[in-house]
Amino acid sequence: IVVLGHDAALCERIFGRLANGAIFNLVLDQPLDRPVAVDIGRMHYDHLLVVGSDAPDLSTAYAPVRTQLKAGGRCWILGAAGPMGQMHLLRALSMPERPAKIVATNLHRARMEPVRKQFTRLAAEMGVKLVFLSRDEFADDEAFLERMRAESDGEGYDD
């Protein structure tokens, strides 16, 4: 499915109707009119591919992309205290070409403490700066997001 335009409501309606294995190509000439609410878990469970471009040439959305974590980059692992998050954290730390910095986040600090104990030493051995942040440590979402920006030196995350 190719969507031309910046209508967030249209994107939500279409995304909700994608068949398993579908490709959702969003081609924009300007930002969406608001944030889009979708079931992002479908990307994994329904094998969806979401691509996009801000160029008028649709083929740019299908350009080859990097399939591994960026060596020396900045990686953000959401839900790091859960089983999938821990698996991704271990994988990131074990790769021969690993990120220089990993920010592991979770909603609750109590769930993050065992992960901190399990991975801090390995990260140090691998030369990776590992930062643990929990949403409940911050007054509000804006304070959390500001810290996330600061952890990336305002440049965002590669992965």
Describe this structure in words.
The structure is a single chain. The protein is an alpha/beta fold and 159 residues long. It folds into two domains: 2-62; 74-151, NAD(P)-binding Rossmann-like Domain (Rossmann fold). The chain has five helices and six strands; from the N terminus they run E-H-E-H-E-E-H-E-H-E-H. The strands form two sheets. The chain has a three-stranded parallel sheet, with no helix packed on it. Helix 4 links the parallel strand 5 (101-106) and strand 6. It is globular, with a radius of gyration of 18 Å. The two termini are 25 Å apart. InterPro entries: NAD(P)-bd_dom_sf.
Helical residue percent band: 25-40%
Strand content: 15-25%
Strand order of the largest sheet: 1-2-3
Order of helices and strands: EHEHEEHEHEH
Helix count from the secondary structure assignment: 5
For CATH, the homologous superfamily of the largest domain is named as NAD(P)-binding Rossmann-like Domain
> Tell me about the biggest sheet?
3 strands, parallel
CATH class of the largest domain: Alpha Beta
Tell me the domain tally: 2
- Please give the radius of gyration in angstroms: 18 Å
Uncertain segments are: none
Second CATH tier, the architecture of the largest domain: 3-Layer(aba) Sandwich
